[in-house]
Amino acid sequence: MPRSPDLLFRSLADPTRRAIFEGLCRHGEQTVGALTAKAGVSQPAVSKHLGVLRQAGLVRERHEGRLTHYRAQPKALAPLLDWTSRMATFWESRFDDLENLLNRMDQ
Amino acid sequence: MPRSPDLLFRSLADPTRRAIFEGLCRHGEQTVGALTAKAGVSQPAVSKHLGVLRQAGLVRERHEGRLTHYRAQPKALAPLLDWTSRMATFWESRFDDLENLLNRMDQ
DNA sequence: TTAATTCATAACCGCTTGGTTATGGGTTTG
DNA sequence: CAAACCCATAACCAAGCGGTTATGAATTAA
């Protein structure tokens, strides 16, 4: 089920959390330990960030023994794209003239 | 000058602020008073939200006597679209096989 | 079994933040 | 000029949040 953009915006508003998600998108599945090594904050802080990202649907976990692997779920970004393009659409639809639109965009 | 997505995410993380911006995108230029009437919070609160949105480049103001009109600047959403699509790109580029990609997206 | 490792949770803390009321500058109206 | 109006800023406050250390459950290694 698609989630509203609220959780997504709130989750991605924090730089540390965004960096963790970005690392998972760039380099694929990683353990909490690996993520902690790059995060610059303590392991419990990373775990809490992962909890927030998981609640927003942005990451998924996979347990393997005492290791926990996390991977990005970039499909969860879809509502964000939807909302953003919808804002642009609302704005654009208020003009009939395309040139007028482009002129205003360069203002 | 393009801004980093950080200010954008932080600015749009608040529901009230996002509603104000959405109202400006939907219905065009509006005064602070008109925005306050729909916001459900006090006028100073709206002014502060507009200040945050302005600092993020998401809105612009136009003074006309004692009225202040605000309008959306949806072009400022571009870094947000860039970041989001970049995340998807990073993630996709880690697979050679397109079918494999699609399968994983449906997981 | 004992010790070490990995991670999540609990408890706590300081800062940020979103809200309020109070106030004042600038502008229009009477 | 005086009064009303529009908005921004200041000052303050409660709540949320991101960080920490401490601890424990679960798993692996010795």
TrEMBL record, chains A, B:
Domain annotation HTH arsR-type: ranges: 1-92
A Pfam family recorded for this sequence: HTH_20
InterPro entries assigned to the protein according to its UniProt record, in alphabetical order: ArsR-like_HTH, HTH_ArsR_DNA-bd_dom, HTH_MetalResp_TranReg, WH-like_DNA-bd_sf, WH_DNA-bd_sf
Signal peptide positions on this chain: none
Gene3D superfamilies reported for this sequence: Winged helix-like DNA-binding domain superfamily/Winged helix DNA-binding domain (1.10.10.10)
Swiss-Prot/TrEMBL keywords: DNA-binding, Transcription, Transcription regulation
Protein name: Helix-turn-helix transcriptional regulator
Native source organism of the sequence: Bradyrhizobium aeschynomenes
Lineage: Bacteria, Pseudomonadati, Pseudomonadota, Alphaproteobacteria, Hyphomicrobiales
